[in-house]
Every structure is written in C-alpha cells, then in structure tokens.
TrEMBL record:
Source organism (scientific name): Floridaenema fluviatile BLCC-F154
Pfam families: MOSC, MOSC_N
Domain MOSC: 88-259
UniProt xrefs under InterPro entries: MoCF_Sase_C, MOCOS_middle
Protein name, entry field: MOSC domain-containing protein
Amino acid sequence: MPYLAGIFVYPIKSLDGIAVNQVKVLASGALCQDREFAILDAQGRFVNGKHNPKVHLLRSTWDVAKQTVCLQIQGTLEKREFAIDSDRIQLESWLSNYFGFPVTLAKNSLTGFPDDNIASGPTVISTATLETVAAWFPGISVTEIRQRLRTNLEINGVPPFWEDQLFAKEGEVVKFQIGGVMFEGINPCQRCIVPTRNSLTGESYPNFQKLFSEKRRETLPIWVNSSRFNHFYRLSVNTKIPASEAGKILQVGDEIKLI
C-alpha cells in the first residue's frame, strides 16, 4: 500500500527545508509554512539558487516552536539566530551584507511563494525514484538528491516513477487522496539548474542535466503519458489541492489512493 513516508517544508524559499510529521493544508492549497518567506532584491525579484550561487552556501535551521531561524555560512563556525518577525530588520541587514546588495524578507502566509502559480500545491515524488536517480550519479547519495530536488511529499511502498501516473493529458487532472486530503495531479515538474549543483557547496556535477535527461528517457515507464514530456529534464509531480481541503492535516504514514 502506498503511504506518505516524508513531509518537507521550506519556510524560507530557496533555503534549507525541515522534515515534519504533519502539516496543515491552507485555503490556497499550499502547505502551512512552505515557502512562507522569500528573499527579494531591490527590484522585487527572488534571490534564489537559480540566479545566485551564494544561496547554496547559506545554511538555515528553523525552530518552528520559537519561530526563529539560525543562519550560518557553509564552512564557518559563526551562527546568528533571528526571531523571524521581531528581528526582521536585523535579519535583512545580515542577509544584505552576505549577498552584497540590499534584500528584504517578504512574507505570505496565505499562499506562500510557489514556483508554479497554477499547480501551486505540494510536489510529490517516491522514495524509490530518489534511490534510482541517485544511482545514475556516482558520488551522489539519496539524501543529496532529495536535498537537490526539494520536493514536499515523499511516497514509499511503490516502485520507481510510480508518481508518473499522477498526471494525464494537458488540461486534465488525476485525482488522488493522501489520508483525508484530496489532490489533483497536474504535470511532471520541470527542473531548473539547482539540481545540477551540490546542495551545500554549489559545485556543479559535470553533464548532470544531459545524463539525467538520457536516463529519464530510458527509464520512462511505458504507460506514462509521454505527451507531457517536451523534454526529459522533468521529475516529481506538481499538484493542486482544492479549497474544500483547507484546514485538513497531512501526516506521515497516511495511505495514498487513486480516485
């Protein structure tokens, strides 16, 4: 029986995530605290790993109960803890000094700051898929692949690429249920440059995207709707959660059922 093996949220977009045992679904269909904050430059653009490699060197530890974040530059011993609301000015100053240009920390507790505003729900992948992809790249562990892909919900008890059945033709959705929460699977997630880089150092893996795409094409299950693959640098599934599910709880161990 497929079941929910892991829940990961990323309180500050582009920074380190945290594993939680349960999470509430917001009215927008986002997960509570996932990408609730985002670092913005003076033009209002996201400061993220896609465009700024220094993001990879920034370690963050989130304390949910205290609502604090502890920041540390990779390879150094100094740590700074900030209350996310009351120390906002000091936090923005520290981040501005680190990046070398002015930044602000924006907050959206209603929708967060999703990468895909249409399929704005949590991303889904299976543990077996992560294990398979890690095996494509000597020297990269399953944990490291997980950190590079930054998905929200991890499914176990299924074979590799099981989640590819959670999307259909363009314009259609696949309905499924995790515990008591209804989902709509939308499309296979298009990956960016971030998975090509070491999650701690930002160092690029040679020919990562090319090798990934070749292996993904070779291992694509025969039953997958291949019309959704204009290229094969796609992995995990983007979803939506209907407004009717607001306030419901997802919990590790929840069973997963196709509707």
